[in-house]
Design a protein that fits this description.
Strand 16, helix 9 and strand 17 form a beta-alpha-beta unit. The strands form 4 sheets. A 7-stranded parallel β-sheet has the order 7-11-6-1-4-5-12, with helices on both faces. Strands 14-13-15-16-17 form a 5-stranded parallel β-sheet. Helix 6 packs parallel to helix 10. It has 10 helices and 17 strands. The termini are far apart. The protein is α/β, with parallel strands linked by helices. The chain binds flavin-adenine dinucleotide.
Amino acid sequence: MTNAPEFAGVWTLAEARDEKISSVSFEVLAWGKDLADKLGVKLASVILGHNLKDKLEELAYHGADLIYAVDHPNLEHFAPDSYSRVLVNLVSEFSPEIFIASATTYGRTIMPVLAATVHTGLTADCTGLDIEAETRLLIQTRPAIGGNVMATIKTPNHRPQMATVRPKSRRPLPRDESRRADIIWRDYPEEDTRSKVRFIEFIADETLEMPLQEADIVVAGGKGMRDGRNFRHIYELAQCLNGAAGASRSAVDIGWITYPHQIGLSGKTVNPRLYVGIGISGAVQHLAGMSSADTIIAINTDPDASIFRVADIGAVGDALQIVPELIRKIRLRSASSEGSLAAEGGNHSDVL
Ligand code: FAD
């Protein structure tokens, strides 16, 4: 679609699974809100699925002014062919100015098909989105050339301007139950909702004890752990903090830990309350995946390591001495708090 004045509104793609709205839907709304406010237009959430009716208010509570919903039994499970046909119908009918989605399997699959079908561009995995004041164009920023430069991309001639952003790269807006949204229900021809793909079963990845991107606390190890066997300290510290174990790409490449644990540009983005980086230098590609953590603690022998530039608390020293001692102290402390609570006869959970 070519640029024309009637294009309007910022759209975000919501996701539903098992008749529940996924949290990434609220994260993209947070990205979209800044853009819609700068343009002075409405912020919309687009959702496809089945039995959605009584769940849509959550999208309003998290920032949507408008909700475009297509509810059909054939759309109960995500399928690239039927979902893309329905999205093409919606985009053709309503002509959004901007359309952003999370770079989940859903977003990564559907957005390129949509962009190609409506003849526009798509910037995948953006780390920043903004509006250019003079032109009102979407500024799409993403790492390029192996993460060594940040590329700024614009789509001046075609609409919608489309981008994906990484899951967990933004916190949802605070939930506000007083917010309301207009809901636009759409029906499209039955054949558009039919897929050639038959859904059999959803199998969750259980290789991670705790999903890295859901964890409030992430303990990540790097090449400074010196040996794969020393990664037991990373797992142990993660476990006693009730967190998840992560890693740098170097540690993954050597084979000390598996790829699902990798944090960074070519791994996962995490957004925990606490990130502890141990024996990690802080290369830009690693920082791309963790620098939005609320609190960052770094342990490194090199006082000039780049990770200290983003750390709130830094410990200069040998991780192989510091971490076992830290684990010992945490365990002692939780044992003594268990003891004192047991003496008081109360129910309790671990207190660090
Ligand atoms: P090093 O850079 O080797 O750092 C090890 C650190 O440990 C050093 O700072 C050292 O001082 C410290 N140290 C040594 N011994 C100890 C000790 N006993 N106690 C405490 N500290 C110690 N990297 C990622 O992490 N994630 C990615 O997703 C990613 N994607 C990439 C994508 C591309 C296209 C490219 C080109 C690179 C990517 N990288 C990624 C690699 C990145 O550039 C770095 O090479 C990598 O992050 C370095 O890992 P590291 O910090 O564990 O190792």
